[in-house]
Design brief:
With 221 residues, the chain is of the alpha/beta class.
Length: 221
């Protein structure tokens, strides 16, 4: 599992921007290029207007990489599918606060199943909605685009959420990692890291360019 480092970042390429016709090759390329983990976006066509992959595909991904799998559930009923995604290989399982009626119970369930729980929130959702759960989780995912599709433009106003989370973490001694996803490139990543982000989720910037160069650029910020 990941632990805090003093300097930048964990780089987590989002396979949403990979070539699904040759996913194994793209995964091997980012692994060789120095990625720290893989970000797996799961969408159900209901919570967000897109459909991606399920546990079967995630299990296949697990079998071709040694990288930790950070699965981001953008689905309406995360409690129903959490166990399947953990059994398929998710080390981190992040769900949306807006999609869950009993976040505390799901966090406990994820822990009992041997994975690390994370919480995410849409750009319009306030940090106060997840504050009660911060002592119990391992990761907070700040969305800097509206969830659902890759390649969107970075929403700069969401950087304040990163700053607020980092301040709460320092004040209370919380141990969660701050991940940021959406429109990440060398410029926007620098802003996020300065605000307190630990994990940079980058899709188009990594898979749309030379992965080794892109990851090196993010690492050197």
């Amino acid at each position: 599992m990941l632990k805090f480092k003093k300097s930048p970042k964990y780089i987590s390429p989002s396979i949403l921007s990979a070539n699904f016709a040759d996913l194994q090759t793209d995964i091997k390329n980012v692994e060789t290029a120095g990625a720290d983990m893989l970000h797996i976006d799961v969408m159900d066509g209901h919570f967000v207007p897109n459909i991606t992959i399920g546990p079967v595909v995630l299990n296949s991904i697990k079998n071709v990489t040694k990288l930790p799998l950070d699965t981001h559930l953008m689905i309406t009923d995360p409690d129903k599918y959490a166990e399947a995604f953990i059994k398929a290989g998710s080390q981190y399982l992040t769900f949306h606060i807006e999609a869950c009626k009993s976040p505390g119970a799901l966090i406990e369930k994820i822990k009992n199943l041997g994975a690390k729980p994370g919480l995410s929130l849409r750009p319009g959702t306030h940090i106060k909605d997840i504050i009660p759960f911060l002592p119990e989780i391992d990761l907070v995912l700040v969305m800097t685009v509206e969830p659902g599709f890759g390649g969107q433009s970075f929403m700069a106003d969401q950087v304040n959420k990163i700053k607020e989370l980092d301040a709460l973490r320092k004040t209370h001694g919380f141990k969660f990692l701050i991940s940021v996803d959406g429109g990440i490139n060398a410029e926007t990543a620098k802003v996020c890291v300065e605000a307190g982000a630990d994990i940079l989720v980058a899709g188009s910037y990594v898979f749309g360019n030379n992965p080794a160069s892109a990851i090196k650029n993010l690492r050197m910020l």
